[in-house]
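Deliverable D4.2, example record:
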Amino acid sequence: MPASPRRILVTGSAGFIGRRVVELLRADGGDVVELRGRWSDTEELAAYTVGVTEFIHLGWYAEPRNYLTSVEGNLSSLQSSIELPQALAAGA
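Output generated by the structure prediction step:
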């Protein structure tokens, strides 16, 4: 019996680690959906999650000059991290 098709959402796919993860998943035959930047709202996020069976969340605020001290940037990333599994669960 063939395995179920894998559709994997990768956030932060344009980053240093994300690019490599996407490359490895595709080499393994995964159907990869790349989410390179922050989504504008939950409707946009929902469009990316259609049919997703797995996700790898690598996206986070990473402005080199202030990523350690930016309260706003890190809170936005935290909110995104909360929205992502909620959107996936709603689409399941």
